[in-house]
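Hey, can you fold this one?
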Amino acid sequence: MADDRPHILLVEDELHLARGICFNLEQEGYRVSHVESGEEALDKLQYDRFALIILDVMLPGRDGFAVCREVRQLDVRVPILMLTARADEGDRITGLASGADDYLIKPFNLPEFLLRVRGMLRRSSWYRPEPVDEAYRFGENEVHLLSYHARTPQGEIDLTELEVKMLALFFQREGETIPRKTLLESVWGYTSDTETRTLDNFIVRIRKYFEPDPTQPVYFQTVRGVGYRFSRKAGTGDQ
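Sure. Predicted structure:
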């Protein structure tokens, strides 16, 4: 009989930590495959599919950032949660720029870790975007949500699962200010008041794709103290 439990790939070279993570994930009802290097992870991705990849930054050989970029070449949609012992904001931004969907700093709180895993799996397991337009156009950009693809002045982009979720929400609620809490719940599946810079760094990534000048966004605008607003017609927001 087929095992229909969500299959998670853990890439972690600290064995004592990996054992603890595997045990707790299995207790939650997930199936877990564990490897100790990026090379092993990339080999597994050639013949197996996963619902989520949990990827440590500090790995022997290729680091997690390099592995994340290579994973995205193989599978643009699989959610990736990065684990890092580095508290430096630059490392977090690097991780998200490499294609990760979220990150946690080690040592992390177990309930918080399981919350993030649950949220990412809950959304990705069944999510398919509602079509807004066959091709959603704004400025010089053209986004195809159903095929996870975009054309921009910077070139053609394959979109990740979470990027599509965020764009679909913005397009469906064009002109509305979407609170941070709503974005975290709808895109990452968080159901608590978990505060994370992941959202802000994710917006930075979206702006790099679609804004003529990412430092002066005209489509994906910040509404200070509330959240973010998308407008198809270029305007000036409260950055």
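The mean pLDDT is 84. Let me know if you want another pass with a different chain boundary.
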